[in-house]
Specification:
five-stranded antiparallel beta sheet; 21 strands; alpha/beta; globular; 14 helices
Amino acid sequence: MSDKSFCFLDFDWLGFDVDHTLVQYRLDNLDSAMVHSCLELFPQLETETAPFFTSIHSCQDLCPDLFVRDVVIDVELGNILKVDFDNHIISAYHGSQPLPPEHIAAMYPESRLTDFVPGLPPVDRDTSRYCYVDTFFERGIVALFGHCVNCVDSQNDFDIERVAPCPAYRAHLQAIFRCFGSLFRNYDQGPFFPDFSQRPEYYLRKTPDHVKRWFESLRARGVRLFVCSNSLPRYVHASMSYCYGPDWQSHFDLILTWAGKPAFFQRTDLFQIWDAGTKQLSPLEGAYAMGDPLPKPAPILYGGSFEALGPLLNAPSTERAGHSEPSPASHPRICYVGDNLTSDVACTHRGGWSAVGLVEELQLYESTSTNASAEQVQPILQEGTEECPWDQGIRLGRSALGDPLIASHANGDEKALKKTSALGRILRDHAGLYAASLAHLARWDVAERWSGEEGKWPTCWIDEQGGLGQ
């Protein structure tokens, strides 16, 4: 933010993603379900990929180091890359085999990716060389792809000294993505949704009560709340009902599902209303799209677009104490909270929204104090050879690829950032705040303002007590 200042009360609306934001998952169970679901669906795809998985029965049969997000897949060479803030390659795997530095240097003479920009919308995965994996749902894709690369290499007398482009790598990755995509298109079909509906407690964590109180505090101060999720309405309704209770809709003023971010900000689709009783969609008609107050409880909308959202955001409310109503021609001030740093953080600026990023990996270190020594954190974080200035409030996560996942800070230490990941770059460029989870964020007083000093970055981390990680 240009004024290096952030306060939630500056905004008319505060929006939230659902998966890994409003709803927090048990990641090991989610990984297992994603892999099992794909193993069940692969034979139906009738591709050359399916036979590779006849010997795979669970996550334990795949490389554990590859269940990770924030990596770049080089589709041509079959490599899985960890890149830093400036796209320099800091580690790599070929399939499930770690690559030594000399092999990385031979494959990538410039030592960095010059045609990859983290935070851009997903590219055409049928043609692009690089594919960025940045969601928790897709962590299993990396592990499955690594296994496919191993299988292809075993058929072709692979030599690590002479890695060359192989079209089969792309074909198998495309098959994996098609399989993953089919899991989420229909709530009544496929192996994942039926199991989820039977035992949501296996996948989800109950939301702490202080988050709900934080919502009410925001609304009492005039900030309206909305949900904007890419998930199906039945899935949103089921997961939110488990985590927040059957009255979950009462916490929000607008609920948008199947939004399709980031395309949501470009298309012109109209909203439909989803009925939780009949499970049916109907056109959004009526009055409240024409200036009348929003109904209570908030209805669940489907599809739509940023253009169609405008009249709803400008609808009047009787609950906005201390806030003036935006005129129909004005642009409400909006902040959006999400975990997908591409579609939730980097791309929301298209609508003029501010953003807060959630980086769940930071929870690994929530018990580590800001002045912890390297010796104290060594059991959970094997640092690089360069400095790790914990005393400056830097938080380092660690990915399974063995390098820093993210360095989050308030002091703008450019040298330290050279050891960070693509996630760190997206946060720096697009986020006003970041936290490990919504439960952490909700510890922060809604009226508190954080202002960066001249020359410092506005991004700051919120710790588990609601304090600022400075």
